[in-house]
Each structure stands twice: as C-alpha cells, then as structure tokens.
Amino acid sequence: MFDWNEFLILAHRLLQDQNKNEAYYRSAISRAYYALYHRSRDFCRFFNIQLPLSVIINGKPEISNHLVLIHTFKNHSSPCLNAFGRKLNTLRNKRNIADYDENYYSTNNINIESEASLVIQDAKSLKTSMLNYS
Question: Which long-range contacts (CB under 8 A, 24 or more apart) does 4-8 make?
C-alpha cells in the first residue's frame, strides 16, 4: 500500500534540489496538497466519517471528491475538523493555482519559493493535527 506521506517528503526534496526552478516549486505545492488530501481521506475511513457522493455548495450540487471532502470537514460537528477543512481548502486553492495558472506568481509579484515552503509547512502542521485528533 502506498504511503501518501511520500508525496510530502518528495515536496520537501524538490525544494532542496540545487537545480530547482518554477516547475519544482509548483510540483512541491501540488505534491504537498495531495499528500494531505489522501491522508485526509484515510482519516475519514479510520474514524468512520462518511463522505457523501455529492454536496450542495452555493446552491449547486458538487461531486468533486476534493470539494466533498473539504465540505465534510468544514461542516463537521468538531470545531477542530471545521478549522482543518478551512485550511485544507486554502491548500487546495494554492494547489490549483500552482497546477493551472501560468501567470499567477509573476502577475501578483508572489515569491513562489516562499509560497511553496509555506504550503509544505502548512501541510506538515495539518498532518500533525490529524495525528493528534482523538
């Protein structure tokens, strides 16, 4: 069985590579998010948190596995899991930018190396909060 934490390790290694460029940073952001996304799904299975097939967001049905997972956390009775869902959503948005918006970092004058480091740090922090959940 694949250990999703390997994506987080890879993200960290991408930032340490001496020949890194924008593709490395974008890939690091993406891998960090996916490590957390898959660990979150495992978390739901472990704690028997049911993920519906779809959810209603802004009055529209949504079937994206990512949005269903985030919505489930954000609407859970636990304040800890609510906060986790909000943070996971932020990381998802950053991953979408890294994967799909070719001009975002230059247009908005954002240091992508710093952004990638923050995403990895946030992913590690959220992973730790999941491990401490009881």
Answer: 4/34, 4/35, 4/38, 4/39, 4/42, 5/35, 5/39, 5/127, 6/35, 7/31, 7/32, 7/34, 7/35, 7/38, 8/32, 8/35, 8/36, 8/120, 8/123, 8/124, 8/127
Share of the chain above pLDDT 90, in %: 81
Nearest to 70 by CA among 48, 49, 100, 98: 49
What span, in angstroms and rounded, lies between the C-alpha atoms of 2 and 68? 23
Q: Is the pLDDT of residue 118 over 80?
A: yes
Rounded (10°) angle between helices 22-46 and 79-100: 150
Q: 């990895």: which residue's tokens?
A: 120
Rounded CA separation 98/105 (Å)? 9
